[in-house]
């Protein structure tokens, strides 16, 4: 083994007293990890919601046939549906049944309200295929030429503000995670410095016996990693409990919009990996802090 | 003055802490490999400062120090651990690691040097027995008397068979019989080639090693600046 590069073994770990190195550090890391996991879960959940909303309605257009005359409306609807099916970029066309339209209007007109002599437009949903969004203007123009009473609305336009809100919240969650990382790193720096001060006498003796900086740093690194693992585990467990509780409440709401903010398996795996990443971060920060401090000693 | 047998060489070495006056001034001397040296002088003369330079706890403010043939003043600090492992130190305040047992304190230099656990148990137990502490191997420093702590410190300093042994008042807290045994230990190590430097006020100790040379410090200056160190001491410094 290369001189000076030997790792201290199990017996040597006693060189630092048993017990936690810097008192509250594991609990501070637990709180940080709790908040980090919640923020990350919020970001991932919102991302999932945005993706599922976009997949569900982002590429859908709705065509309304506004003609007041029912016969003309029916004829225009048939012509518009036929035209849409023929147009390139349109994947699927489906005309809404009177029952579906009634259900849509029920909140405004009440049950059976649409059975009065109101001119209810005919409605056609069309899903755009790949490249369809780029040809939307062509679709709109072709429809306007063939069926002047038709009005085309892109569902994605209605989702725009919601998408922007979700995107902003995602960025906020990412910023929170970043701030937690910075705060955790600062905590580790302070804990490492405190530990160094506490064990300065032992370190000086080790140095004078020929310990290298790396040998000494590894002792602290290991202890800080254990503290971070302890704190990270507690923080993750508490956050997971909160997420499960929130998930139960969301399911009880029965809202498609809120319910779409689900955490896929990959997101859960990422959340579980956060404490491990936290330990690695703590080890790296502790190592850098201690090596820098030791570098100032002779 | 330097030669093939020189293990330590000081040339015009000065040491100043902060902006104060020099603690050590113009020290020029050399120590030969296998020599036995007593460092004497009144309190505040700079003995401990000189020893700190020897065991690489301090770099001088000026001058040149060569250790094992290499300039350690300008040496990068990453190379210092290798040199420190060749030096055993008995600190005046023992500096035992308080939460470690006597056994673990003595084993420390071997562990730092990478000796496997199975290889260090025998030597450590033997060394503890030799200093009369075989039965206190599991005791922590706080439960040991001053003399026992000092013996643990000495066992720790010599366990790795250093090339240089530096001891600051090593017999200050032990009874005369134990002092004699410890000195015999230093003498034995010296016979095996270890250069021994002992800072002491103990006249009996100084006179008991007939072949020893003496370094006398007063107010940070060596009283024999030529390096032709005298043996035995002509008079007792307080």
Q: What Rg of chain B is obtained from the alpha carbons, in whole angstroms?
A: 17 Å
Structural class of chain A: alpha+beta
- Number of helical stretches of at least 4 residues of chain A: 9
- Please outline the major beta sheet of chain B: 6 strands, mixed
Gyration radius over CA of chain A? 31 Å
- Looking across the biggest beta sheet of chain B, what order are the strands in? 6-7-8-3-9-10
Report on this model:
The complex is a heterodimer of chains A (298) and B (238). Chain A is α+β, with helices and mostly antiparallel strands and 298 residues long. Chain A is 68% helix and 8% strand. Chain A has helices at residues 25-58, 70-86, 98-109, 136-146, 155-198, 200-208, 213-253, 256-259, 265-295; strands at 60-65, 90-95, 122-128, 150-154. In chain A, strands 2-3-1-4 form a 4-stranded antiparallel β-sheet. In chain A, helix 1 (25-58) crosses helix 7 and helix 5 (155-198) runs parallel beside helix 9. The longest helix of chain A is centred in the middle third of the chain and has 44 residues, at 155-198. Chain A is elongated, with a radius of gyration of 31 Å. By secondary structure, chain B is of the alpha/beta class. In chain B, the strands form 2 sheets. Chain B has a 6-stranded mixed β-sheet, with helices on both faces. Chain B has a 4-stranded antiparallel β-sheet with strand order 2-1-4-5, covered by helices on one side. In chain B, helix 3 packs parallel to helix 5 (146-158). Chains A and B meet through helix 6 of A and helix 2 and helix 3 of B.
Give short descriptive properties of this protein.
heterodimer; A: 298 residues; alpha+beta; four-stranded antiparallel β-sheet; 9 helices; disordered N terminus; B: 238 residues; alpha/beta; six-stranded mixed β-sheet; 7 helices; 10 strands; 31% helix; disordered C terminus
Task: Provide a concise account of the structure shown.
The complex is a heterodimer of chains A (298) and B (238). Chain A has 298 residues and is of the alpha+beta class.
């Amino acid at each position: 083994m290369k001189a000076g590069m030997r790792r201290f073994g199990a017996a040597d770990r006693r060189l630092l007293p048993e017990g936690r190195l810097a008192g509250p550090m594991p609990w501070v890391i637990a709180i940080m990890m709790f908040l980090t996991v919640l923020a990350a879960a919020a970001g991932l959940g919102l991302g999932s919601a945005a993706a599922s909303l976009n997949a569900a309605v982002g590429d859908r257009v709705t065509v309304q046939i506004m003609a007041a005359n029912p016969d003309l409306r029916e004829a225009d609807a048939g012509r518009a549906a036929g035209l849409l099916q023929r147009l390139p970029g349109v994947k699927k066309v489906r005309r809404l049944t009177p029952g579906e339209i009634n259900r849509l209007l029920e909140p405004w007109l009440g049950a059976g309200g649409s059975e009065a002599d109101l001119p209810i437009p005919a409605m056609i949903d069309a899903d755009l295929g790949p490249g369809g969004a780029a040809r939307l203007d062509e679709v709109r123009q072709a429809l306007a030429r063939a069926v002047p009473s038709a009005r085309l609305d892109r569902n994605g336009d209605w989702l725009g503000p919601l998408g922007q809100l979700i995107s902003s919240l995602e960025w906020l969650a990412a910023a929170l995670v970043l701030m937690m990382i910075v705060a955790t790193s600062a905590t580790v720096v302070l804990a490492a410095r405190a530990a160094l001060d506490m064990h300065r006498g032992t370190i000086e003796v080790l140095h004078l016996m020929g310990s290298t900086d790396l040998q000494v740093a590894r002792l602290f690194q290991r202890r800080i990693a254990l503290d971070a693992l302890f704190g990270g585990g507690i923080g993750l467990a508490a956050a997971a409990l909160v997420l499960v509780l929130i998930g139960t409440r969301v399911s009880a709401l029965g809202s498609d919009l809120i319910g779409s903010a689900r955490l896929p398996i990959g997101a859960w795996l990422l959340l579980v990996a956060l404490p491990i990443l936290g330990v690695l971060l703590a080890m790296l920060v502790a190592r850098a802090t201690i090596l820098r401090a030791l570098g100032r000693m002779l | 003055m330097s030669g093939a047998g020189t293990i330590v060489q000081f040339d015009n070495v000065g040491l100043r802490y902060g902006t104060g006056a020099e603690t050590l001034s113009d020290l020029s001397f050399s120590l030969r490999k296998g020599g036995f040296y007593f460092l004497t002088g009144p309190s505040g003369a700079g003995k401990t400062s000189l020893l700190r330079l020897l065991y690489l706890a301090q770099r001088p403010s000026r001058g040149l120090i060569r250790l094992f043939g290499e300039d350690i003043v300008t040496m990068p600090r990453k190379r210092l651990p290798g040199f420190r492992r060749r030096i055993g130190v008995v600190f005046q305040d023992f500096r035992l690691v308080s939460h470690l047992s006597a056994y673990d304190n003595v084993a420390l230099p071997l562990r730092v040097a990478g000796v496997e656990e199975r290889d260090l148990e025998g030597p450590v137990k033997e060394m503890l027995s030799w200093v009369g502490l075989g039965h206190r191997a599991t005791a922590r420093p706080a439960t040991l008397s001053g003399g026992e702590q000092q013996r643990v410190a000495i066992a720790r300093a010599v366990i790795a068979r250093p090339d240089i042994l530096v001891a600051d008042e090593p017999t200050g807290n032990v009874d005369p019989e134990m002092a004699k045994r410890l000195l015999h230990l230093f003498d034995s190590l010296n016979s095996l080639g270890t250069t021994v430097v002992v800072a002491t006020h103990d006249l009996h100790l100084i006179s008991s090693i007939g072949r020893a040379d003496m370094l006398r410090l007063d107010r940070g200056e060596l009283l024999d600046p030529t390096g032709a160190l005298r043996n035995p001491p002509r008079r007792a410094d307080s």
